[in-house]
Design a protein that fits this description.
The chain is of the alpha/beta class. It folds into two domains: about 190 residues, NAD(P)-binding Rossmann-like Domain (Rossmann fold, 3-Layer(aba) Sandwich); about 180 residues, Rossmann fold (3-Layer(aba) Sandwich), CATH 3.40.50.720. It contains 18 helices and 14 strands. A six-stranded parallel β-sheet has the order 3-2-1-4-5-6, with helices on both faces. Strands 11-10-9-12-13-14 form a six-stranded parallel β-sheet. The protein has a two-stranded parallel sheet with strand order 7-8. α13 links the parallel β9 and β10. The termini are far apart. Bound molecules: uridine-5'-diphosphate-xylopyranose. The site of uridine-5'-diphosphate-xylopyranose has 19 residues, from α9.
Length: about 450
Amino acid sequence: MNICIIGSGHVGLVTGACFADLGNKVICVDNDEEKIGKLQRGMMPIYEPGLEELVKRNKKEGRLYFSSGLKGGVRKSEIIFIAVGTPPRDNGEADLSYVEHVSREIALSMPSYRLIVEKSTVPVNTGEWVEHTIKVFNSRNVRFDVASNPEFLREGSAIEDFMHPDRIVIGVKSKRARDLLVELYKPLKAPIVVTDIKSAELIKHASNSFLAAKISFINAVANICDMVGADLVEVSTGMGLDKMIGKEFLNAGIGFGGSCFPKDLSAFVKIAERCGYDFGILKEVEKVNEYQKRMVVKKIEGLLWNLSKKTIGILGIAFKPDTDDIRSAPSLEIISMLKREGVRVKIYDPEAMDKAKRALAKEGISSFGKNAGIEFCKDAYAVSKDSDCLIIATEWNEFKELDFKKIKKLMRQPVIVDGRNIYDPEELQKLGFRYLGIGRR
Ligand code: UDX
């Protein structure tokens, strides 16, 4: 099939490369000409395992193209995916102006029948607005369908998630749209849930909010474990083996971040509000998530007494491992809090250093003054040197294999706050560390 993907961010790029790999001819469009230029030269704008090879191979074999011209992409493709950003507005609602703009451009460019598919995460009813917008600007009365096909890709395992999904959700109004999308996804041999458009849109927000709720729930349980002296890992193992609960997403820690959960939660709360419903559960989910970051700082205070003039090392800046994405990363808020306490902060992340430098420099102007006083280190050992405490903020594999005897010698005080529960408390305690996990005994 001939496919056009509008928006070459994480979702658009991975989707485009994977559709090409399934044998389709794909044009990925973006209005950022610099990004398109880089992609044409084989340079990736994001770090995602396996993406570079996938893009290079499909480009070489003539199935994947990059262009900044939306019109050309729409003319050449029967199916058009909208994968542009839907960033949060100040009030928490999703900003849909890019979706509207692209819908209008598609309407002005389509020469014959087109299936326009929402791929970005959008509030329920967006499909109706897309359809309305296309109708208004479709002066030649070209036939078209609108469909919703939310993505469920996790950063860091996005290609695997695309190729082996638990389910594919397609929300459609017509048989033609249904048949086209079912045909497109057939090679994946995954269960396909066909719904109306609004239900498909809701599935996405409901799923992400549910997962976020699961994380906040286990974080709240971890806080109780800390208070009563129980062990969260044992508790979550005992809970997770119940198939109705499931063992995934029961890892307690410093809270969830990323480009999806925080944004989708507040958008879903707003959607409910607009319908006249107070989605109180989700507000609590947000509250627990905020508390987790403050809790880490409290833990450190409990271990170091005064924070002022202490040196604290942060291992991991990305919101999760295997990505360089630092959007809404809990680490950044923790750094902010520590800086406000007068702490000297040292940081290291295997992939996110460039993005962290840019983000913290910006932050430096607003909250820390010119001298942000953050030291960017080359590895975990450099971070450890002369530190009074290490915080594990991202569970990168390389942090699981550190030489702690060496680290103990390098640190000023052997203190570890394991914000992702990746170490065995006993082992570190035996080596002489004062160790605190999240809900660990
Ligand atoms: C998420 C959804 O999983 C995916 O389906 C959707 O399409 C996009 O949003 P992503 O944001 O890439 O994917 O990462 P995910 O692996 O879900 O983790 C999100 C955050 O939750 C991370 O900060 C992670 O550290 C945190 N998390 C996850 C926990 O704190 N505990 C867990 O048990 C799982």
